UniProtKB/TrEMBL annotation:
Domain HTH gntR-type positions: 19-87
Domain of life per record: Bacteria
Entry's family note: In the C-terminal section; belongs to the class-I pyridoxal-phosphate-dependent aminotransferase family.
Biased composition (Pro residues): 94-110
Xref: CDD domains: AAT_like, WHTH_GntR
Entries under InterPro entries matching the protein: Aminotransferase_I/II_large, HTH_trans_reg/aminotransferase, PyrdxlP-dep_Trfase, PyrdxlP-dep_Trfase_major, Tscrpt_reg_HTH_GntR, WH-like_DNA-bd_sf, WH_DNA-bd_sf
Protein name in the entry: HTH gntR-type domain-containing protein
Keywords recorded for this protein, A-Z: DNA-binding, Plasmid, Pyridoxal phosphate, Transcription, Transcription regulation
GO MF terms, alphabetically ordered: DNA binding; DNA-binding transcription factor activity; pyridoxal phosphate binding
Residue segments, region Disordered: 88-116
Signal sequence residues: none
Length: 346
């Protein structure tokens, strides 16, 4: 079947540039053959017809055909015309055709960065905060530790893990040793890391409804079965989760400050959640989001700190207490999970 002339009309011919028309026609035909747009064995249109459709001299197309013939891209058959060669020159392969994809034009933006400035993760940086950060950075850069410039330990620098463990013990009543702390590049890596270690494809997982959208995306990527659990004035409705999926493998919860409602998980609900996890042999992934900020009342102890069965894995993001560019997250794992978590993080 001859190539459709309407398709060949799309050959890129630039009459304003300095490249000769002959080279443009030859190059466009060659690329069409290599991409599969002109398939092996396909018949090329007559030189006169193609020249008329492209608006070039017939001799331009004739010479382009002759060059392709000499290089083995096409073959001529007496009385039949020119065809794309079924045996292309050695080392040349035609990739499988890919479907075209049109990306819609983005809507008008009020931000020079291309998105509307309504991010929930932005923070106010005053000169005092920047001055402290600058001073600390310069102090360590003036006396760099050679180990800091290498690949480092899989779970993160030992000194940093020790400092974080001390902070979590004093500020959040977390029961962990430095060996149970794993440093990640941020919330997304921490979530992915824990899910890869704890979940199997098809495992049911309780997820707060509403929830942080990126968590749902991570669960779907892990091929988990998401079980939405409603959130009320006391946080995640544990009884609703038990009714929907009593055999869930994991429950994801933001007890310190639910995202996006800001509800704090009550102590009664915390104990109910931990009791279910112990009975079902399930895991609780505690996202300690926004625990640094208190506006009323005394802070409640972390789930990990009051868990007596070792069923809670907690991760503590630092983007709120520092700033997003320093958004490391720290999963605090039980000892049996530390090795696989650190290997995945490496």
């Amino acid at each position: 079947m001859p190539a459709d002339l309407s398709d060949l009309m799309l050959l890129p011919i630039d009459r304003t540039g300095g490249e000769p028309l002959l080279r443009q026609v030859y190059g466009a035909l060659r690329r069409a053959i290599l991409s599969g747009a002109l398939p092996p064995g396909g018949k090329l249109p007559p030189t006169r017809a193609l020249a008329e459709r492209l608006g070039v001299a017939r001799n331009t197309v004739v010479v382009a055909y002759e060059q392709l013939l000499a290089e083995g891209f096409i073959e001529g058959r007496v009385g039949a015309g020119s065809f794309v060669s079924r045996d292309l020159p050695d080392g040349l392969e035609i990739p499988p055709p890919e479907p075209s994809r049109r990306v819609p034009s983005p809507p008008p933006s009020a931000s020079p960065f291309g998105t509307l400035p309504f991010s929930t993760g932005r923070c106010a940086l005053d000169e005092r905060s920047l001055r402290i950060w600058r001073s600390l950075t310069l102090r360590h850069l003036q006396r760099p530790d050679p180990e800091m410039l290498g690949y480092g330990e899989p779970g993160g620098p030992a000194a940093l893990r020790e400092a974080i463990a001390r902070y979590l013990q004093s500020a959040r009543a977390v029961r962990c040793e430095p060996e149970q702390v794993v440093i990640t590049a941020g919330a997304q890596q921490a979530i992915d890391l824990v899910l890869r270690v704890l979940l199997r494809p098809g495992d049911p997982v309780w997820l707060e409804d509403p929830c942080y959208p990126a968590v749902r995306a991570a669960l779907e990527a892990a091929r988990a079965r998401v079980v939405p659990v409603p959130v009320d004035g006391q946080g995640m409705a544990v009884a609703a989760g038990v009714a929907a999926a009593p055999d869930a493998r994991l429950a994801y919860v933001t007890p310190s400050s639910h995202y996006p409602l800001g509800v704090v998980l009550s102590m009664a609900r915390r104990m109910e959640l931990l009791a279910w996890a112990r009975t079902a042999g399930a895991w609780v992934l505690e996202d300690d989001y926004d625990s640094e900020f208190r506006y009323a009342g005394r802070p409640l102890a972390s789930l990990q700190g009051i868990d007596g069965g070792g069923r809670v894995t907690m991760w503590a993001p630092s983007a709120r207490s520092c700033f997003p560019a320093c958004g490391s997250a720290t999963p605090s794992c039980r000892p049996s999970c530390w090795t696989p978590c650190s290997r995945c993080a490496a």
